């Protein structure tokens, strides 16, 4: 993916994704903001395991734009029978900006980190439905991670949601090799990252409004709908 321009405007626009002044974000604990979820790492299990990869520069391991909203939406739709886990810096995914320019639109360490969490979920919680989602660079992390799974592990992934899918154009709106009826892509009108650029527009920060629909889709795939 190549961008026609990449300026400090990108940094400024991404920083507003938290909907809080930068100085306040620095003072607030990420867990209090709902931007960090470590249920899987804490040894928990449920009938459904939701793993999310945040967008570039987002805080915590869930971010703030649409990760926490999707997690809470799943919990309300599945009577709490779901645990949530973010792919964070400790897993190898720093959500840095330069990695967006790599051939896979993220780096190998981030992909490996997501794969390990998915594999941990299948081993720690056998029989649980695995539900995945990613936003912006996180969507690239997830699409690459799914393709790296062995067939048995991939079969346990029941649903995938991509918000602001940075590989939307290259991958033709799907995860290569993964069932299209188990995949939902949200690309807002005017979001140019869905059109094979890295140009950030205001539309790229709007996916919180799609989180309820994303959670409903994932809940449906988990229930076999």
UniProtKB/TrEMBL annotation:
Enzyme Commission numbers on file: 3.1.1.74
Subcellular location(s) per record: Secreted
Keyword Secreted: yes
Catalytic activity: cutin + H2O = cutin monomers
InterPro entries noted in UniProt: AB_hydrolase_fold, Cutinase/axe, Cutinase_monf, SRCR
Coiled-coil annotated residue ranges, if any: none
PANTHER family (alphabetical): CUTINASE 1-RELATED, CUTINASE 2-RELATED
Protein name (Swiss-Prot/TrEMBL): cutinase
Species the sequence originates in: Apiospora phragmitis
